[in-house]
Amino acid sequence: MASSNGGEDFESSLLSFEKLDRASPDLWPEQLPGVSEFAASFKNPITNSPPKWMAELETEDIEMLKELGSLTTANLMEKVKGLQNLAYQLGLEESREMTRGKFLNILERPKK
Question: Does pTM surpass 0.70?
Answer without folding.
Answer: no
